């Protein structure tokens, strides 16, 4: 079976300086999406033609009144929300001049004075210097809000003194967060909490910040969790004489070589250890070729995979031409892309199955006696290829899933992107539709765990929780 790539979302940030007209941007978006997205007809047939017509009328009226690219961006995102939750996005390409929110302002912020103020505080609370994913922030309480001022950032679109997020007091001990993404677009988050005094969690384990110059020491399990969630590369760790841990934060195609290397370097240990925990929490997908070296380790019986079909259009088929020039693809993959392009071009306007069958069966020449038990940690951020991996993995008698239901963004997949004629926006849409629809749809439903881990077990204890279950099976 030829491996199909399921691409995750990437949000570019490029400068633009073209004239702006939201109505024409909307018309481009609507036409491009209707003609090229593989899930368009399915969504309309599910929700109804009349519902779609009403939706269009509402947003056409809105875009006519839009006064800026930022405002228009919100309308275009709202229009896209009709179709599905994942594998769909429209990005605003801006240099920041049109961003009309609080983050666009650079505030005068005295880091030294704030650090001296923190030294005088008796107790450590949310105020402090925090770090995460290339950012160093000063979280300062001002009124009832906590404003997170950027001190340092590896993202050039964020400057010192800008506000990265705001924590709002909602009353009754609850808080919400106004979080500004890489492109300064707003994301509203309904939860904020602590792992401990040194780690602040935004959302439901969505983002974890670490306190700098902490006065207390965190528990080893907390430090382990933060390290694993912050990892940008696969990691392997021996937890005990009978249990090992493989952390895979992403199945992005560019990580395949590193995933393969970690497995190769530690294969002897893995195959001599009774239990294996595979932690894919937060893994939003990538390419299914990235997990192909994992499957032989956990394999017990033939793996059945339901195929998919691609919507053939001139725009969509151009992705195959790009694959043929991509150095990350092998000669075999490039040849597959070449032949696929020919098949697609011969059937423009149709859905095309690029494989011989709608169902493929993958087998391996042996079943390894060890690991005997495999626990895969999953959460509500797992989608796309991560869910495809789970569908394959859970067919093994060795494998059990631990955690919470996944995101459910797999059936409409294989993302592609195109810029609007003005270059103000980039549309991310999907090229393929699974043959699972409608009998075994994953979208909007997700994949449920075998062992549900409820909220009484903190995220940093999931590994210990899973390890105890595996070691007593």
TrEMBL record:
Q: Which residues form the signal peptide?
A: 1-17
* Keywords, comma-separated and alphabetical: Signal
- Which InterPro entries does the entry link to? ClpP/crotonase-like_dom_sf, Tail-specific_protease
Entries under Gene3D superfamilies matching the protein? 2-enoyl-CoA Hydratase, Chain A, domain 1
Among Pfam families, the record links this protein to: Peptidase_S41
Residue ranges constituting the Tail specific protease domain according to the UniProt record: 243-452
Positions of transmembrane segments: none
- The protein's name: S41 family peptidase
In which organism is this protein found? Answer: Pseudoalteromonas spongiae
């Amino acid at each position: 079976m030829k491996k199909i790539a399921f691409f995750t979302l990437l949000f570019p940030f490029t400068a633009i300086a073209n004239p702006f007209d939201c109505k024409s941007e909307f018309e481009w978006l609507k036409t491009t999406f209707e003609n090229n997205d593989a899930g368009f007809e399915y969504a309309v047939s599910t929700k109804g033609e009349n519902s779609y017509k009403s939706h269009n009328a509402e947003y056409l009226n809105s875009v006519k009144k839009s006064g800026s690219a930022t405002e228009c961006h919100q309308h275009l995102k709202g229009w896209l929300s009709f179709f599905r939750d994942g594998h769909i996005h429209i990005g605003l390409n801006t240099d920041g001049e049109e961003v009309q929110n609080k983050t666009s302002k650079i505030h005068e912020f005295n880091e030294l004075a704030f650090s001296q103020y923190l030294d005088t505080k008796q107790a450590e609370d949310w105020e402090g210097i925090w770090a995460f994913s290339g950012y160093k922030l000063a979280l300062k309480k001002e009124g009832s809000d906590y404003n997170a001022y950027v001190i340092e950032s590896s993202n050039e679109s964020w400057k010192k003194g800008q506000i990265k997020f705001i924590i709002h007091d909602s009353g009754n001990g609850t808080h919400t967060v106004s979080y500004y993404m890489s492109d300064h677009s707003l994301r509203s988050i309904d939860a904020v909490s602590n792992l401990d005094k040194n780690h602040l969690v935004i959302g439901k384990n969505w983002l974890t910040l670490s306190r700098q110059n902490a006065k207390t020491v965190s528990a080893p399990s907390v430090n382990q969790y933060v390290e694993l969630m912050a990892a940008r590369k696969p990691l392997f760790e021996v937890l005990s004489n009978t249990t090992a841990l493989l952390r895979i934060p992403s199945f992005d195609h560019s990580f395949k070589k590193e995933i393969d290397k970690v497995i190769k370097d530690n294969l002897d240990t893995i195959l001599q250890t009774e239990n294996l925990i595979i932690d894919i929490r937060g893994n939003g997908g990538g390419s299914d070729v990235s997990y192909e070296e994992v499957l032989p380790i956990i394999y017990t019986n033939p793996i059945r995979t339901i195929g998919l079909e691609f919507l053939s259009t001139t725009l969509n088929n151009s992705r195959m031409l790009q694959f043929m020039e991509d150095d990350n693809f092998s000669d075999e993959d490039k040849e597959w892309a070449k032949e696929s392009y020919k098949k697609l071009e011969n059937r423009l306007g149709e859905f095309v199955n690029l494989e011989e069958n709608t169902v493929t069966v993958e087998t391996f020449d042996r079943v390894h006696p060890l690991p005997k038990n495999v626990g895969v940690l999953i959460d509500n951020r797992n989608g796309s290829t991560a869910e495809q991996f789970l569908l394959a993995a859970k067919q093994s008698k060795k494998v059990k899933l631990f955690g919470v239901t996944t995101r459910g963004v797999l059936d409409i997949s294989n993302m592609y992107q195109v810029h609007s004629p003005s270059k103000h926006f980039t549309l991310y849409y999907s090229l393929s539709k699974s043959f699972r629809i409608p009998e075994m749809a994953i979208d909007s439903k997700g994949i449920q765990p075998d062992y549900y881990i409820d909220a009484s077990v903190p995220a940093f204890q999931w590994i210990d929780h899973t390890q105890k279950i595996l070691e007593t099976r």
